[in-house]
Protein 1
Amino acid sequence: MTNFLSVERALRTAAPHALLEAVRSALAAHYGAHAVDLLMADYSQSVLQPVTALPHTATAVSVHSSAQGRAFGSQEPTEERSEDSDMIDLHLPVTVRGDRLGVLSVLLPPADCTPVAIRDLADIAGLLGHEILVAERDTDVYLQARRVNRLTLAAEMQWQLLPARSCARTEYSIGAQLEPAYAIHGDNFDWASTAQNLTLTITNGMGEGIEASLLTNLAVNALRNARRAGIGIADQAALADQALYAEHGGNAHVSTLLLCFDLATGQVQVVDAGSPQLWRQRDKAVERVPFEAQLPLGMFDQTDYVLQEFRVLPGDRLVFVSDGVYAAASPAGVAYEDQALARAIGAASLLPAADVPGAVLRELAAYRDADADDDALVVCLDWYGRSNPV
């Protein structure tokens, strides 16, 4: 415990840009580490990039075919025998409340790679993740390390607007992904939880480029402003609708699906203001859950929005998709939602929620017309519920 506390102290006192240097020095001194590397998941979650002398990084490794990727995917420590010596490379997921940031790789002598050391180092990787999230307020080092390519300005604005790409609580876990990750336009997701409920919004903005990003930014912040005032989702939609109409006079609108989950009962309130779809996997059956569609936000002045309700059961998987997913057509002109979407959701049934969006989007890429350039958004929510509802 003394070793762990020493590393913790080193991380908490390090400069925001120097967390990797601090953890390297501390792990060498207290755990016998011969080398320490931090790899960050890129925006598409396809590779892990080592943090080096930024804005450049060392060669990235695949999330899908590397030992580091296995640790990232399994969210468990992974041991790998070093190619250059009899040392052990220990790969540890860097994750904060279900948000998968990357992997911490520590090179150790076999004698020092004990169960106690592995447990300590796993906790240190989690602590490093917390410190990275705090440090990102003051440095671009870790954000730069997530980029394989330069983001478009619209994508930069959209990624800064998003919450985490995944999160987990006792009652649920969520994973989300946007593609093309480096050139997204108007699609967006947002969530926030309290002790009583989870609010989730899926947004499909119209237009392209900066205009689409600005429109979505206004819509999301209007919804957040209303949510943080403590009002229900029907009034959140109404206030965001007013904000958009006041700015654009009906010439621009945003399709949004708003949901509020009661964490104790699984009862869900819904406002369907446009095009995002909800698909549910219950047991082995995958089907779309339809709602009564209402007007998109900002289309007309003073629109009233009406709540609908359904209930989610423990074990249910909910998958939300934008029109860039369900309306995408194959070269033969067949929409993805007709049959392929349900198959893709079913094929990913054994994956955790954080991995489902990427799996569905990979199936989509193989299915649709190669020239398609619309945003594609997938959000997966696995519902566990409470064993003792209160």
Protein 2
Amino acid sequence: MTTLLGYRSLVQEAAALRSGADDPLDAARRTCDRIDAVDPRIRAFVPEPGRRDRLSTAARELASAGPPGPAGRPALYGVPVGVKDIVHVDGLPTRAGSALPPEELTGPQAAVVDRLRVAGALIAGKTVTAEFAVTAPGPTRNPHNPAHTPGGSSSGSAAAVAAGMVPLAIGTQTVGSMIRPAAYCGVVGFKPTYGRIPLDGVIPNALSFDTLGCYATELAGIALAAPVLCDDWRTADAEAPDRRPVLGVPAGPYLERADTEALTAFAAQRELLTAAGYEVREVPVMADYAQVVAELFTMNRYEVARAHTERFARHADLYRQQTTAAIQEGRSIGDAAYRAAAERRTAFRERLAADGAAAGIDLWIAPAATGPAAADLTTTGSAIMCLPWSNAGLPSLSLPAGRAANGLPLGLQLVGRSGADESLLTWAVDVERVLNETFGEPAAGR
């Protein structure tokens, strides 16, 4: 199976640009060349006829306004970044994967884009999203095999990084829209704790769950970007002591939702980590998982419907079938049912945290998806392996962790405690090392 990985990692790109070994104009030119060469096949970016001129102008302005030498250049100086097309960017229209008139979707630039630009990043363009980040797929293909889905709804962002078009991309997750595409496309995906990155300037899916995150080809890139993107990042993390974390396996109905190939791969990943010296404990949790799933979608669909009340009233005929179905389902859910589901979610969060603490678990581990990406471009795949962690608002990562029998990537999901994003990234470094030593797939540029 041919992979398009092979370009510089985010850490390498940022170091070259900050040191002066490279310059933003060259980075902009390379990015446009790569998009022109690869994106007709992958379709990760929203088409933009004036991309090269816009990006070149931004690169010149950055170079002329910034420090003359390496000293003082910010963390992402000159780095091209893809931004999911539900996130407003000044100078670029927001279409949200929809056929609605662009004037229906205008808004001020997102806070996350402000942070990227303060850090010196260049916005390479908008990346494709499922319609309104729900379930109707965009045109993006999986870079490892274009006949297969890249996942959703952050499909374009994950595929753009996997195909070497940009070293960093922004996505969002409501249920599984960051972690699943990362697994399917063989990159690292990071979904922070709910609320850790402000959602100002982002078109909502379901505001009780929506969380901004990012993709890179390796964990070191995520560690470089996270302090730029997240509120109040602690660079010296006292919560991750100098020891290996205790890993928890969430035994029970949740884990049984993965397919046979994913469970077989997960067993092998567990054995690797145990052999490397990790303590891995099975913890029976979520015996009522079917109810947890139902309650999440009660809240999710209710909030989707309310987010689209005015637009849907004006343009119902322009919405795609999957999105319309979600909105119609949400409109049938009453306020009392929503409030009851929200109360039960609070109880679920408290129970999950208590179960983990009682078992002495530092990080949960699980398959990042039910299996490899399906050979079906009409679906974005199942979010069921991400659902409980999104429901609890917990920080999570997907690390590349081998390949399925058909050659497509698989991912291992790591989940931390609420607010302990720094610990998650710190502890994940050695987990990534163990996985890379065994599965032997170097990150881009190595």
